[in-house]
């Protein structure tokens, strides 16, 4: 999307500001994409763990390790999957914090330079404190 200035006469936003704004948006998209990918991986781990907990510990199962399919028992695989799930959860938490910080940075940058995105509605004032709280909690994701 293209950015244009509003509220400062008819002046255009300097090209370096537009470039920085677009870079911030791209970084935000990248973080959101990675977070969505990790969320799917976390859900997959949960499903497999739940399934394996319901079977005998001595039962054979197969696991991909470094591109090689290896035969193990459920007893050997389950702890590794649970550990992976924990690590993915922590990484997702960190990524979510980074995404929120990037959203604030982008929002502050837009406000500082009075940037409006072409085709985007003008921001409307929240009707009450509940609407303001909802808007703040919704996060900032610019498409």
Name some characteristics of this structure.
Helix Hairpins, two-stranded antiparallel sheet, 3 helices, alpha+beta, 143 residues
Word description of this protein:
This is Prefoldin subunit 2. InterPro entries: PFD2, PFD_beta-like, Prefoldin. Residues 21-55 form a coiled coil. Keywords: Chaperone, Coiled coil. It contains 3 helices and 4 strands, in the order E-H-E-E-H-E-H. Helix content is 62%, strand content 13%. It has helices spanning 15-53, 74-113, 129-137, and strands at 3-5, 60-65, 68-73, 115-117. A hairpin with a 2-residue loop joins strand 2 (60-65) and strand 3 (68-73). The protein has a domain at 15-113: Helix Hairpins (Orthogonal Bundle). With 143 residues, it is α+β, with helices and mostly antiparallel strands.
Summarize the structure.
Pfam families: Prefoldin_2. The protein has a domain at 15-113: Orthogonal Bundle (Helix Hairpins).
pLDDT below 50 for ≥5 consecutive residues: which ranges?
4-10, 132-143
Question: What would you say the CATH architecture of the domain at 15-113 is?
Answer: Orthogonal Bundle
Percentage of helical residues? 55-70%
Number of strands: 4
Mean of pLDDT: 84
The tally of helices reads 3
Strand order of the largest sheet: 1-4
Structural class: alpha+beta
N-C termini distance: 8 Å
The CATH topology of the domain at 15-113 is given as Helix Hairpins
Percent strand equals 5-15%
The SSE order reads: EHEEHEH
Largest sheet: 2 strands, antiparallel
Coarse morphology: rod-shaped
CATH class category name of the domain at 15-113: Mainly Alpha
Gyration radius over CA = 23 Å
